[in-house]
From TrEMBL:
Sequence intervals crossing the membrane: 40-58, 64-83, 95-113
Keyword Transmembrane helix attributed: yes
Residue span of region Disordered: 436-457
Annotated keywords: Membrane, Transmembrane, Transmembrane helix
Matching Pfam families: PLDc_2
Entry superkingdom: Bacteria
The protein's name in its UniProt record: PLD phosphodiesterase domain-containing protein
Organism field: Candidatus Coproplasma excrementigallinarum
SMART domains listed in its UniProt record: PLDc (SM00155)
GO MF term set: phosphatidyltransferase activity
Domain PLD phosphodiesterase: from-to ranges: 266-293, 557-583
GO biological processes: cardiolipin biosynthetic process
InterPro entries named in the record: PLD-like_dom, PLipase_D/transphosphatidylase
Length: 642
């Protein structure tokens, strides 16, 4: 049902000129409708099943005195077990309170909700997948790193097995529309495979465009695979459309299908946002595949989101994430290596070229120009061999090289290399010691950027570290929370956060408070228009408490902020994970940790462009609303479950 609201339209129209993709947005206001009924029915059936178990338990308590004593003992044992467990403090407090209030059935409800008991088989299956894929020949950067970057990379590597890499050209997008334009173009150029994994895939204009591209590529023999979460896409991806997708030769699988049974595993969702093309290009960020993410329809005002494109070695990490999840949902073993090797074609290693170069020498001098172009593409297509100059704030043309080529030889199209006088004798040595490249000129700060969106590609000197990583119940540690905590601890000058939900645990809360009191510029950007009123109340309550310590809290006017990013002076984290307990402890998430200057400048410019669109919230001592305070306190009890 479309809601006509002239006031909202005027607000959106006033906001649009400031949006980077305002010229393509249609002003609409719509509400979700379909899908909720299915979720409510499943929840109702699950609650009825739980109620039946509780009823039988109470009957036993009333019939047998010894069973009552048993229940008392179990409640005490369960509380002691909780106190010694690794659960976060808020979850412990909530569970202990529920166990005491719901005596004598509290312990029963707790154990029916313990993932270590009722999610054990899935954990074991995922553990086997991790072990089987742990010895793959992955690309990794073994050179020098800044000390703080090395510490963060060491934690992620030791916890998840993902490797830090360089040799990646990156592009930051401050909006969903601009990101999807490039993503569709990259998918249209795919030659081997396209992997897509999203929490939400919804029928609409965006998916129609994507499906057209995927259908054409699948017909051309490209391996196209899609994973979507059943809860996120519930009611938004019709069965008829899924049949069309599969009929087009596209493999599509559902993660954790919703069923009308009481299963604690239903609470664990695939919240990742990943697109991989040929193992050489990867996208991630806050965006899903639905019309609101490109502002093609309006659910909660202007939709603020972001994404990052990585071309090069970083794509291999995202390829591995998808392959592991694919094996998990399909329950089929297969060889990962062909898909991971395809990433090497995008950014070939010097070692591979050294081994193969002598065998592929040109047969005659007439073949020299073609050979030079081919060798340049295979060896120097990385960011360090891309020559660019600034031009009107757009992607820059190659800078002409000053070196002279032999008479009659043509210059390679894009890479800039010096002459190779004697290929047969010098190829191996020159690959071990690559020639000088033409360095691009880069802006020194965010103020020098022409716009928030930037497509500067790093040279070898300024290319940063990229470390894609995943989190989920397959890992013992709360990877998302720990990486965020590690980044927060490194901040010395600034700490900027953009997130749709702010329900952190005490570790993150205490760290933000400490940083603000130490003089660090701590800023948090939240939505001005909520999508879930109950979560929004808790988010504002948590954020407002931090303002007492000097944290600056902003809400973006007439907009829903869906961006999930952190920026400090020496690194950034961009991905799918919110600052809430679900992302920290329950959901399957992904992100990329990077100290790449291109990405950091883009994210910094995005923050700088967002702050003027926001209203800063200020703490006023003594100003309270009793009813709202009571409601928020009640909702805070259930915060660990939100």
């Amino acid at each position: 049902m479309r809601i006509e609201n002239r006031k909202l339209k005027r607000q959106y129209a006033a906001h649009m000129p400031k949006s980077p993709d305002g010229d393509i947005i249609r002003i609409k206001t719509e509400r979700k409708g379909i899908g909720k009924m299915k979720g409510m029915l499943i929840l109702l059936v699950a609650l009825l099943q739980l109620g039946l178990l509780v009823f039988l338990h109470l009957q036993l308590v009333n019939a047998f005195r010894w069973y009552l004593i048993f229940s008392v003992v179990m409640d005490i044992v369960t509380c002691l077990y909780l106190l010694g467990s690794s659960k976060n403090g808020r979850a412990k407090a909530v569970w202990i309170m529920l166990i005491l209030v719901l005596f004598p059935v509290g312990f029963l409800i707790f154990f029916l909700s313990d993932e270590r008991i009722f999610f054990r088989s899935s954990r074991k299956r995922y553990k086997k997948i991790l072990i089987a894929s742990s010895d793959l020949p992955l690309k990794k950067w073994e050179g020098d790193m800044p000390k703080l970057t090395a510490l963060a990379c060491a934690y992620i590597k030791n916890t998840t097995g993902y490797m830090p890499v360089k040799n990646t050209a990156a592009k930051y997008y401050p909006s969903g529309a601009s990101a999807f334009d490039d993503m569709l173009a990259d998918c249209a150029s795919a030659q081997r495979f396209i992997f897509i994994e999203y929490f939400i895939i919804a029928e609409g204009a965006l998916f129609s465009r994507l499906f057209g591209v995927l259908k054409e590529r699948a017909a051309a023999g490209v391996d196209v695979r899609i994973i979507y979460d059943d809860m996120g896409s519930s009611g938004r991806l019709p069965r008829s459309l899924k049949k069309q997708v599969r009929a087009a030769g596209i493999q599509m699988y559902t993660f954790n299908k919703l069923v009308p049974l009481y299963k604690i595993g239903m609470n664990y969702r695939d919240h990742r946002k990943i697109t991989v093309v040929d193992g050489r290009i990867a996208y991630t960020g806050g965006i899903n595949i639905a019309d609101e993410y490109v502002n093609e329809k309006r659910l909660y005002g202007y939709w603020k989101d972001n994404a990052v494109r990585m071309e090069g070695d970083a794509a291999q990490g995202f390829t591995l994430m998808f392959l592991r999840q694919w094996e998990f949902v399909t329950r089929k073993r297969f060889d990962y290596l062909p898909f991971l090797q395809s990433a090497e074609e995008g950014v070939s290693s010097a070692e591979q070229n050294t081994a193969e170069g002598v065998e592929n020498l040109p047969d005659s001098a007439e073949d020299l120009p073609d050979y030079l172009e081919s060798a340049a593409e295979k060896t120097f297509i990385n960011a360090e061999a891309t020559c660019k100059t600034q031009s009107d704030g757009l992607e820059n043309p190659p800078k002409p090289c000053t070196e002279e080529l032999p008479e009659g030889a043509e210059r390679a199209a894009e890479p800039c290399i010096e002459t190779l006088p004697d290929i047969a004798e010098n190829l191996s040595d020159r690959l071990k010691n690559p020639p000088a490249v033409c360095a691009e000129s880069s802006p020194d700060s965010a103020e020098d950027l022409p716009a928030a969106e930037t497509s500067l590609k790093s040279t070898e000197q300024e290319s940063g570290i990229f470390l894609p990583y995943a989190s989920g119940l397959e890992y013992r540690d709360p990877v998302v929370r720990d990486v965020y905590a590690g980044v927060l601890s490194q901040a010395r000058e600034r700490l900027w956060i953009m997130t749709p939900y702010f329900v952190p645990d005490e570790t993150i809360t205490n760290m933000l408070t400490s940083k603000a009191r130490s003089g660090v510029d701590v800023r948090i950007v939240l939505p001005g228009v909520p999508d879930k009123a109950y979560v929004y109340l808790i988010s504002l309550d948590n954020a407002d408490k931090l303002t007492r310590s000097g944290v600056k809290v902003y809400t973006m006017s007439d907009a829903f902020v869906h961006t999930k990013s952190v920026l400090i002076e020496n690194c950034a984290v961009i991905g799918s994970a919110n600052f809430d307990l679900r992302s920290f402890f329950q959901q399957y998430e992904n992100a990329v940790y990077t100290d790449d200057k291109t990405v950091m400048r883009g994210l910094e410019a995005d923050f700088e462009a967002t702050f003027p669109e926001c209203v800063q919230r200020n703490y006023v001592k003594g100003k309270t609303r009793p009813l709202r305070t009571l409601l928020t306190a009640i909702l805070q009890i259930f915060a660990p479950m939100m």
